[in-house]
Amino acid sequence: MENIFYNANHSPIGAYASFTLGFPGSSGGPGMERTGPADTNVYIGVERREGGSYESLPFFKGGEDEGKRYDVEKKDKEEQTGYFDKIQAVEITRDFRVCSDTWMAGDLTFTLYNQVESVPNPQESQTDGNEEQMKITILPAVIGELTIDNRGCKRTRRAFFGFDEVEARYGMRRFISSEMKGAGQGGAFAVFSNSPCNAAVGFCPECILSEDDRDNWEFNLGKTALLIFDVPADTKVTFPLAVCFYHGAQATYGIETKYYYTNYFSKIEEVAAFALEKFDVIKSRCLAANERFNRSDFTEEQRFMLWHAIKSYYNSSQFLINGDGEPVWVINEGEFRMMNTMDLTVDQLFFEMKMNPWTVKNELDFYLHHYSYEDQCGLTFCHDMGVANIFTREGKSSYEKCGLTDCFSYMSHEQLVNWLCCALVYIRQSGDLQWGEERKGIIIKCFESMLNRDHPVPEKRNGVMSIDSTKTKGGAEITTYDSLDVSLGQARNNIYLAGKCWAAYIGLEEYFAAGGEEKLAVQAAGQAAGCAETIADHLNENGYIPAVMDEDNDSRIIPAIEGLVFPYVLGRKDVLKEDGKYGRYIKALKKHFVTIMESGICLFEDGGWKLSSTSGNSWLSKIYLCEFVAAAILGFDREIYMKDADKAHVRWLTHPEHSYWCWSDQIVNGIISASKYYPRGVTSILWMEG
């Protein structure tokens, strides 16, 4: 990477927490349930070999004397230059992987490890062994190692790791027991070690490290908490660390839940003890996952973007349990914090089906029972379940408003199609035929609702949405691309949404045929054929399909090809062939793609992909998905169409001024601009298939 100083999430699974690190200054630290990084100082450093002064990785602001709040007439100290300094950027290297992040500078090496593991299904019979696996997997902690190479030095040196106050609610504290020591804030965030060390609280790291009497490390007014390690002369020592999180009270309102990990841990000290006990197990799992999520044929850029996106996904993950003992899986929408946004769920589907398919069923059923509704066309689904730990009332999202034609309008048709695509993929890939049979009546209702949104009169149907929901009250439905222009934002007659409709009909045909519903299977096949022909018919003499059909729109969009992913993951590769039943449609999409992939149309000047010819707002999650479709399904050469583009995409994510936001989705003209701190980039897991 041209710039190694970008923030990344290091998150437990399902704890909605992150120890964020990587962007210079006061830009990271431990946080829970946040819209962005914790913005506190992080101190990771060591005493210089000559003694008497310290240097630390550059993740702090410094220069503040917090003691002046108490002694208002206190004179400013003369700056003690050279006593506590930032390690210079040129001296630092970074090894970034999906489950580890290592910083190296001189004698210091610091690594954080975050798990990427399948979460066991909590509703299956749990043996003692399975319970142990659950406890390890959803442990609300990330582990770390601080290594100091003191070989060749004839004196003991001091090393440290800690952070400043994150929020004002609770003070900083020391945790002391015979087995371990810790330093952190209240009972929510702390770092622990079972190596010989000391815990200290003070006004600043310099204040702590310069204390002559260690009794003063118990000073509780300060906002800095450190673990301090002594490294004997002429040794190299690695200190194990556990960065722990805990939220034991009620987690959500509207529907009352707690974090699932509270079944196993009653306070942060118990989290720490278990993390340190299982340290070697967790580390070995992380190293194994580093290999599992690597492929020799990946480019450096693919590896980086996949790993970075997975880390951000887990930052937004929230594994809960309700009052009836039922599990609730929630993926929060990054900086926006909307809960299980359906148009994210459908894109995160591929990752969740790979890791823990039960979470997909959990989301689908929760939508069905709490966040579905009927309009003039029939059954459909809400945009989301709530926002910022508040579940909305049943049948209502936090997002959708009536009377609008753009952002915040209803997504009735798209969410219907999204729920169907998720359900069909879940049934096909999980083999859970019992759930598929139990939901047959619902799936038939969804199919009927789709037909009515095409047109209530069968003879006038062409496979494409043309009817806006009455929920809009005179407005117009939109798509997941809500902040783009009409080219991708309008739902009616949009070729992006039409492509997903075609995919849903393909899946429904197979589902109905397998379930003995031959009449419905024939009807679904007819809708798929009509949809494909309608789109192919709009391929114009200039070699592209206008983004919105029959409405004087001349925008060109890459996501015209997006819907092809669903037949692929449903095992229907037969419908994706140029010489197959839908060959004319496939050929039209290939022609469209070749035509628009030109600089100034659907390529930015830096070579990055531009989803719409008429908008500078491009979404990386959708780029990753469309890259997979273009390469693995349509057969386009990655060397030609993706390799240089991905270099641009990495530059977007590692921009030296904007990479504070970890993995982010909406990039406007090369700059991270919205959908920050976001989970949706796990569409890149599809690259593991191609």
List the helices and strands and how they pair.
Blueprint: E1 17-20, E2 29-32, E3 42-47, E4 54-56, E5 84-86, E6 93-96, E7 100-105, E8 108-113, H1 128-137, E9 141-149, E10 157-164, E11 172-176, E12 181-185, E13 189-193, E14 198-202, H2 205-209, E15 224-231, E16 236-245, E17 257-259, H3 268-277, H4 279-292, H5 300-315, E18 317-322, E19 327-331, H6 342-355, H7 358-370, E20 372-375, E21 378-381, E22 386-387, E23 390-391, H8 412-430, H9 433-438, H10 440-454, H11 486-489, H12 495-514, H13 518-537, H14 565-569, H15 583-596, E24 617-619, H16 620-633, H17 638-641, H18 643-653, E25 666-668, E26 671-674
Parallel strand pairs: 4-5
Antiparallel strand pairs: 1-2, 3-4, 3-10, 6-7, 7-8, 8-9, 9-16, 10-15, 11-12, 12-13, 13-16, 14-15, 17-18, 18-19, 20-21, 22-23, 24-25, 25-26
Helix pairs in contact: 5-18, 6-7, 6-8, 8-10, 8-12, 12-13, 13-15
Structure explained in plain terms:
The chain is an alpha+beta fold. The chain has 2 domains: 17-66 and 80-248 and 263-289; 293-688, Glycosyltransferase, CATH 1.50.10.10. Helix 6 packs antiparallel against helix 7, helix 6 packs parallel to helix 8 and helix 8 (412-430) crosses helix 12 (495-514). It is elongated, with a radius of gyration of 27 Å.
Helix content: 25-40%
Poorly predicted ranges = none
**In the residues, how many domains can be counted?**
2
CATH class descriptor of the largest domain: Mainly Alpha
Which percent band covers the strand fraction? 15-25%
What overall geometry do the principal axes of the alpha carbons give? elongated
- In CATH, the architecture of the largest domain is Alpha/alpha barrel
Round the mean pLDDT to the nearest integer and report it.
96
Structural class: alpha+beta
Q: What strand line-up does the widest sheet have?
A: 6-7-8-9-16-13-12-11
CATH topology of the largest domain: Glycosyltransferase
Major beta sheet, specifics? Answer: 8 strands, antiparallel
- Roughly how many Å apart are the termini? 24 Å
How many DSSP-defined strands? 26
Q: Number of DSSP helices?
A: 18
Radius of gyration: 27 Å
